Amino acid sequence: MNATNATSYLEPTQEAGRQFMQRNFAGPVVMLNLLRLRVVADYSSYPELAPVMPISGAQAYERYIEHTLPFLRASGGEILFLGEAGHFLIGPADERWDLAMLVRQASAGAFVSFASDTGYLAGLGHRSAAVEDSRLLPLSELPFSAIADPAGL
């Protein structure tokens, strides 16, 4: 845990889900994931998924990705980027993230369908075992003209 945030964020709240749906995304949604992994994965809430021997949070997250990819692809989604993170160049000096990931979905509806798929949910325990803290920021693409002419926003 870091000094700037004593609370872990692992699941969306009902209010956050409501706000996500009210944004009325037009077109694709890209999810920015920041992940801090556990040193040792905690499968205590998911004993049915637990490996015989303890594994790292990174290894558990790899299992989560392997399980998730077929469901993500079937829903029209894809991982655009997965990379090693670290400390911010601009941001809290004592905050660090192990992984950063960008996941693209065709629409907010496709994301909700993916996230509620029972097959996908069956392996979600790997993520829970792996992740100590996370952030998930839904992004919608702006046309370049909006960036080039901020007054046009």
Question: Topology of this structure?
Answer:
Layout: H1 14-22, E1 29-37, H2 57-74, E2 78-84, E3 99-105, H3 108-115, H4 118-121, H5 124-130, E4 131-140, H6 144-148
Helix pairs in contact: 2-5
Keyphrases for this structure?
33% helix, four-stranded antiparallel β-sheet, 153 residues, alpha+beta, 22% strand, Alpha-Beta Plaits, 6 helices
Task: Give structural notes.
With 153 residues, the protein is of the alpha+beta class. It has a single domain, classed as Alpha-Beta Plaits (2-Layer Sandwich), CATH 3.30.70. It is built from six helices and four strands, in the order αβαββαααβα. The N and C termini lie far apart (38 Å).
Give the N-terminus to C-terminus distance in angstroms.
38 Å
The total beta strand count reads 4
Number of domains: 1
CATH topology term: Alpha-Beta Plaits
Poorly predicted tracts of residues: none
Number of helices: 6
Largest sheet: 4 strands, antiparallel
CATH architecture: 2-Layer Sandwich
User: What is the CA-based Rg, rounded?
Assistant: 17 Å
